[in-house]
From TrEMBL:
UniProt-recorded Gene Ontology molecular function terms: electron transfer activity; heme binding; metal ion binding
Membrane topology: Multi-pass membrane protein
UniProt keywords, alphabetically: Cell membrane, Electron transport, Heme, Iron, Membrane, Metal-binding, Transmembrane, Transmembrane helix, Transport
Protein name, entry field: Cytochrome B561
Subcellular location: Cell membrane
PANTHER family: BLL0291 PROTEIN, CYTOCHROME B561
Length: 187
């Protein structure tokens, strides 16, 4: 019988931090896109669509890796409400990482816009043109984008809480840095 890992597999950690950088960039690019009509609007859309599709692929890979490798257990002394909050917030993060790109693609398809990514890669439409559907998907993409931003900030705050205040190994379990020697505490 093997014990549970005390940190995520290296590939899980690399994908986490790669996606974190991309998601933060996407959120800021998205806000920039809806607040500008400047000449940089079209290049921003191209980058936003391309990174969005890449993130969709990466999150599906992350889910498969999570099923394969699992995750380290949360600290035993963490309260039940905090464990529940961690579980629910991670489920919401994964859901939004999947839903946001799909909403974005659906919104473009419903508006009959071609989905062309960086390098000229085209994604054929999977939805018919519909003004009503476009409006619904656009609103969902925008408002869930704000919710996603808030959830990312909450996730960042929780990570810093574990790293700087609790110092319980939760942050270290996802860190790319090598682990320092551990001192076992006894009660």
């Amino acid at each position: 019988m093997t014990s549970a890992p005390h940190r995520f597999a290296l590939i899980q950690r690399v994908l986490h931090w790669l996606m974190a950088v991309c998601i933060l960039a996407m959120l800021f690019i998205g806000v920039g896109m809806v607040s500008t009509v400047a000449p940089k609007y079209l290049p921003l859309i191209l980058v936003h669509k391309t990174i969005g599709v890449i993130l969709l692929v990466l999150v599906l890979i992350r889910l498969a890796l999570r099923l394969y490798y699992g995750a380290p257990p949360l600290p035993a002394d963490l309260s039940r409400p905090m464990k529940l909050g961690a579980r629910l917030s991670h489920q919401l993060l994964y859901a939004l990482m999947i839903v946001m790109p799909l909403l974005g693609l659906g919104m473009l398809w419903a508006a009959a816009y071609p989905v062309v990514l960086y390098g000229g890669i085209r994604i054929p439409p999977l939805l018919p043109q519909s003004d009503l559907m476009h409006t619904l998907l656009w609103n969902a993409h925008v408002y869930l984008g704000f919710a996603f931003f808030a959830l990312v900030l909450l996730h960042l705050a929780a990570g810093l809480f574990h790293a700087l205040i609790r110092r319980d190994g939760v942050f270290a379990s996802m860190s790319l840095l090598p682990l320092r020697d551990r001192v076992t505490q006894t009660k």
